[in-house]
Design brief:
The chain is an alpha+beta fold and 412 residues long. It is elongated, with a radius of gyration of 32 Å.
Amino acid sequence: MPSIFLTIKLAIRGLLVNKGRTLLTMLGIIIGIASVIIIISVGAGAQSLITNSIRSIGTNLVGVLPGKGGDSGPPAAVLGIVITTLTLDDAKAIEKLPGVEGVSAYSRGFGEMTAGNVQTEGTFSGITASYPSVENHEVALGRFFDVQEEQSAARVAVLGDELFRELFPNTSNPLGEKIKIKNEAFTVIGVLAKKGQAGFSNPDQQVLIPITAAQKLLLGIRHLGLMRIKIDRAENIAPAMEQIRSTLRFRHDIKRPEDDDFTVTSLEQALAIFTVVTDALKLFLACIAAISLLVGGIGVMNIMLMTVKERTREIGLRKAIGATPRQIQNQFVIESMVLTGIGGLIGMSIGSLVAYLVAIVAKNLEYNWDFLISADSIVVSLSVSLIVGILFGFYPARKASRLNPIEALRYE
């Protein structure tokens, strides 16, 4: 045991002889480990941003998209292809199924919006009156439109928080004011509470109007872009999805499941697929970042070979006074491990700090971003840095242990 401590002491002393070279040698390890930590942590934070946004909608929601989806890819509607298979009557039929608390149907568009002298372009969503309860979105000011206004295609509008502030920068109460969407006038009856990103859309930046008004006045269509169905209990989601599929097949006169012209999925399924994809992407990026560890390891080996050459007389002297080849080998392996171990610790510290700063900036920008660094990533990073030290330090250490003491003492 004392010989091990002596070996470690000699290894550290050897590294301190040339501090500048030691620091430059560690640089590759520091950059490699820091890159891996940053990519894993920032990737986990970005993943949490989207998953938190999706969960904020509600995990007991079922989505229905037009077009067939499956193992070959997502529904064509996701790719921007217009499919007209879903209608408002489909939504009303689904709303009557057991376990269904509400259905929110959507027809979205993009166009010019005007309020007084303020003009902008943005997204408008034609939706059903059940939107607030289905999407768990409260009205902060005024009210939401009701079923009668939906059925009569009333020219009323509810603004998202950000769009309200953009269109009415000089007032805190826009109720009763007029806005124009694609030159069609609507009366503002409410402002939604600030919600932030929800899935892949931001309701704070939209204006919501009755779906019938959107279809008749602005879009000139009869089909839906999507439906979201709120299920009463989590255990009823799977049977409700089957009932939704059966109802749509009956209404669309579809005999075989493979001929479906719609896709039914739950948010939990979407989250699971998204998590698998992002985990694979994080692993891929981490492997690319780890290449710098290989470069750093080669740098360690080159420096250790140079160190062995510079300290040939020292090695010969130690062997002459009784040091065994194993002790010489251990000394240089430990030097390499200390070098990469310290570099790994510095890299982890820098990587964690950068990831934390990214999380702080994201939080200040009001993103639902979690700062995540797993204990596994810390342990793996430190282990990898030590393994690099062993692998790339072994050859120089082996070479040093095999030096002939007489020839080493004669070396100039």
